[in-house]
Fold these 2 entries.
Entry 1:
Amino acid sequence: MIMESGRKLAVVFDAYGTLFDVHSVAALAETLFPGDGPELSRVWRAKHLEYSFLRTIGEQYVDFRVVAESALQYSAEKLALPLTAGARSRLMNAYFNLAPFPESLAVLQAIRKMGADLAILSNGTSEMLRKLISNAGMEGLFTHVLSADAVKKYKPDPRVYELACKAFKRPAGQIIFVSSNGWDTSGAAWYGFKTFWVNRQSVPPERLDVMPGGAGTTLEDLLDYLR
Ligand code: LAC
């Protein structure tokens, strides 16, 4: 499956939740707010996404770091947690330093070894993505690191997915897009990419008129799909 139309395969990854574990902030959240750590992490992530969708629909773009901070503020208030400036800054710092999933690096290396070109296409800013990549020892693995910040819209706006076509200079049908977020693989499939869904939470498929081309529970399952 590596050579398609005589060209190298292009595999494009979502970042948050797919390569990097957004819930790795839960440990610090639990230290700061015993008993509420996992719930804070869950509400924070959901609100972060909701705000990114709303800001795109309402044409009120601010970058993903700012959206993360406002979503954190809201989530703490919602759960009645006293978020001091110090706690906010520690949680934001944890968000900038999310842990990769245990299999992320090895799977990326294996796909590179198969001869494919890799990219990240994420709502995160370039600066946020650079830090995650460098912390995880993933430098040099990606041909392109693409941020929604370039078009000031968030996925699933088609103008964000278009960044990958422009970068690889090929049509959407010749790109495989990988995400753990069902809404993201749906948006990518609407746009025309081939998609692979890393269904880490074993949730039902989204009912949005499209289905992923392949699915698994960790990135390791992507290796089988590509072979
Ligand atoms: C990303 C988030 C939204 O674009 O998962 O990386």
Entry 2:
Amino acid sequence: VNDAHAAPRSVGVVVVAAGSGTRLGADVPKAFVQVAGRSLLSYAVERVTQVAHLARLVIVVPEGHGTATALGDVAPVPEGTVVVPGGAERTDSVRAGLAEVGEVDIVLIHDAARAFTPVAVFDRVVAAVAAGASGAVPGLPVVDTIKAVDADGTITGTPDRAGLRAVQTPQGFDADVLRAAYASGLSATDDAALVETLGHHVRVVAGDPLAFKVTTPEDLARAQRLVASWAASVD
Ligand code: C5P
């Protein structure tokens, strides 16, 4: 019986915001960096709270920022939001968040640094998992030719660009599958990679340029221009 389109399924979202601001040259955690007077995290949370069937929101913050009350100044969060401290690597932070996500059908893992990801991207990811995929990630076609290289910089291969995607977040999964992947103790910069390793099918759905990750000062400048353009179009 294919009941993929049956009752809506509950969605838990883990927003990982425990990274440092090192590459950005910031003196606060990256997710707390301000754009037009608001933290990156607050932009991310604003979008996440619009996700359909959201049953649980977990925010993973740097050590020492671990209460919803303390977070109040940085980003208003809806009642019932769980705030937990993260770890040294992104994987550790995801694992900490996953432990708090509770009984939901679908889990989305989202980078706070991808603060401007449109709600439609979340919806596409959820729809793909609800339709039966073990996992779904947003991705964009690759514009550059990508080379595989060895330690000396000698090219070892040139994959066909048509078969490549640059992936973003939110990455969404069947909750049981993701828990199993993290229970394996493996580590990856990408949640989908863990799930793929276990042999599950993960699909790529259409990403969005607005889901870019704020990593460098240039990215931050792009974020500032973006928000300024929205403000200008409202006037
Ligand atoms: O460092 P990078 O930009 O790849 O991090 C992606 C996301 O993972 C960011 O939102 C960052 O806050 C989060 N992260 C985390 N814990 C870490 C490292 C990164 O929550 N130890």
